[in-house]
Design a protein that fits this description.
mainly beta, two-stranded antiparallel ribbon, about 60 residues
Length: about 60
């Protein structure tokens, strides 16, 4: 039988090729092919996703 502590660590990241771009217009549910108004939202997002974790455990 073994007894002791174990520590595990992990780091991860997602790699995106380009920044996400958004170009949204307002459409009606009845006819989603024609814009309802001149409302328009445009944006660019710089994406960065990562995570880190540490786990400690003791066997008994």
């Amino acid at each position: 039988m073994r007894s002791g502590w174990t520590v595990d660590a992990a780091i991860g990241t997602l790699i995106f090729a380009d920044d996400a771009r958004v170009n949204e217009r307002e459409y009606a549910h009845e006819d989603p092919t024609q814009p309802v108004s001149g409302a328009n939202y445009q944006g660019t997002y710089e994406l960065s996703a990562w995570s880190a974790s540490v786990q400690g455990s003791k066997s008994f």
